[in-house]
# Entry
Amino acid sequence: MEFWSLVFVFMLATFIGVGVVSRVSRLLHTPLMSLTNAISAIAVVGAILTTGADENPLGIRILGAVALAASMTNIVSGFLITDRMLKMFKEKREPSK
Amino acid sequence: MNQHLIQASYVAATALFILALHWMNDPKTARRGVISGVIGMTLAVLATWLLPDFIVHHVWIALAVAVGFGLGVPLSQVPLTAVPQRTALSHAFGGLAAALVGTAEFFLWLQGHQAEMTTFHVSALLIEVLLGGLTFTGSIMAALKLIGVSWIPQRPVTYPLQNFSNLALLILAVVLGVLLVLDPTQAAAPWIFGGILVLALAFGVLLIIPIGGADMPTVISILNSYAGLSAVAMGFVLNNKLLITAGALDGSSGLILSVVMCKAMNRSFTNVLFGAFGQVQAAAASGEQKSYKAETAEGAAQLLEQASLVVIVPGYGMAVSQAQHKVRELYDLLTKKGVTVKFAIHPVAGRMPGHMNVLLAEAEIPYDALVEMDEINPDLPQCDVVLVVGANDVVNPAARTDKGSPIYGMPIIEAEKARTVLAIKRSKNPGFAGIDNELYFLDKTWMLFGDAKAVVGELVKQLSGSAGH
# Structure
């Protein structure tokens, strides 16, 4: 039964994703990709559990730590570069120029 | 109590992620989307790290997080022309994380939690590892191709029976998977698992080898989708709904972008992945010699100056020669002289979705001057001068007229309808896809040969010189 509730969530989330993303301005497709990149680094949750759990043997924790570093890299660089790009989209030039 | 707090944080994080994407629908609210995403992610990380009692190796986590910051900050500061390869690299990291967590989880089960190894769990885990593994190596290959390292061929690499052997590998992986699912605790389980992992890694490389630069926007979108789906599979493995929702948001975003890219090239997914674009045309090149008409910067500047509407069509060549800032100067000068300047953006111009928009925004060109292909095409017959800066296939009229052309049916920016066409081109060789461009031989077309940045710089010099008179 656990399986079906997960499938339910997946189905609904996919429809929401398609609905929301199809309205994203085409101007912003590059920042959209870096933003979703950061969001999909939610794999960080699995990585934290693998790295930090008490019972896990050393080898497993090492795998987890590498995965955690990789996810964290995506989170940090994804959000930062998205913001950096979005800052550049201006409707009108600033008068100082 | 902690369980409730964790779940509540996950629900809030999901809502914040959805809002983040929602706010991307307008450049005015988009930065709010980033803030929303950051808050959601922070909530998710903190809830997972600090609330469960069984998380004890805090130093490990803190170190890995620190490494993530150490790598992430410099990666976010790359020049914007390098954004496609940064994106590919981050897909690789996403795939790597999924594959590693999947591997860790598998051996954890094998060593002590064999009751967890239900058909459903093992299947989901194998999908996670397959998708993660192929996204990892595939994205690394894509990134290396985009960076342009010398030991990876830029042109698509094809060999006999390529699709057949790829398919055979995939079938082999599926067969191994089924074997493992049927009896996950068998003595050979680690070996079978290892075999699947190796096949996934190999498959990622083989999938990208035959893909050329012009197809990169589509491929990057597909890899984006895979990275999301591997997170979804991880969610199924760990029974975690936050992983599923966030992964599904990324997966559907990648899917939509892939569809947009495919439509913009009039090609199907399978055609992009298995078609080896750029191979077929070599044979199709006709022996007929046509000649270009070259124009000087001086003459071109005069044409631009006398126009009332100028449409600039940027392409990957503008990114390569970093010409966007010179283009901005040109935009400023012409606008000051009362010329209306618009930019026509083809969805697949450049190496990733939206690539041109970001480069032009970086050069401080206001985004209301950036016009999508479908919106600008009706205006082109009234346009005095189209200036093509480093674009080629996206303005090739063969896409509309020549049924034999490999790009036939691809929607293009109809530059040939303008009164005059000025095209900047690095050399007299055909473009990336190896296709001759009829546009360059029209009576109304004048060629400006040279590096895009140098040529636009020359135009700027001419125009600002004449302003002084």
Remarks:
- Residues 53 and 65 of chain A are 11 Å apart (CA to CA).
- Chain A touches chain B through 83 residues (CB under 8 Å).
